[in-house]
């Protein structure tokens, strides 16, 4: 039985196999769209905001960030 997955770009169902050279994408087009989204920073790996980003945040955004950080369990 072949496993099927959704293309991350268009959601089309595609087979997850070594024969699909674009996996997990359905096509080269979808693969390039995804690459472009990473290149223009539409996709990012989450991280803590830096000082410049924090200075641009509204008071409500800063408060929400502080509440979220306080709710995190200690990783020590």
Number of strands: 2
CATH class descriptor name of the domain at 4-39: Alpha Beta
CATH topology of the domain at 4-39: Erythroid Transcription Factor GATA-1, Chain A
**What does the overall shape look like?**
elongated
Tell me about the biggest sheet?
Answer: 2 strands, antiparallel
**Distance separating the two termini:** 44 Å
Radius of gyration: 19 Å
Give average pLDDT, whole number: 87
What is the element string, with H for helices and E for strands?
EEHHH
Q: List the total number of helices.
A: 3
Strand sequence of the main sheet, in spatial order? 1-2
Percent in strands: 5-15%
Q: Name the CATH superfamily assignment of the domain at 4-39.
A: Erythroid Transcription Factor GATA-1, subunit A
Share of helix, binned: 40-55%
Question: What is the second-level CATH architecture of the domain at 4-39?
Answer: 2-Layer Sandwich
Based on secondary structure, the structural category is mainly alpha
Poorly predicted regions are none
InterPro entries: DNA_gyrase_inhibitor_YacG, Znf_NHR/GATA
Cofactor: Zn(2+)
Binding site for Zn(2+): 7, 10, 26, 30
Protein name: DNA gyrase inhibitor YacG
Outline:
With 76 residues, the chain is mainly alpha-helical.
Give me the secondary-structure topology.
Elements: E1 4-6, E2 13-15, H1 28-39, H2 51-56, H3 59-71
Antiparallel strand pairs: 1-2
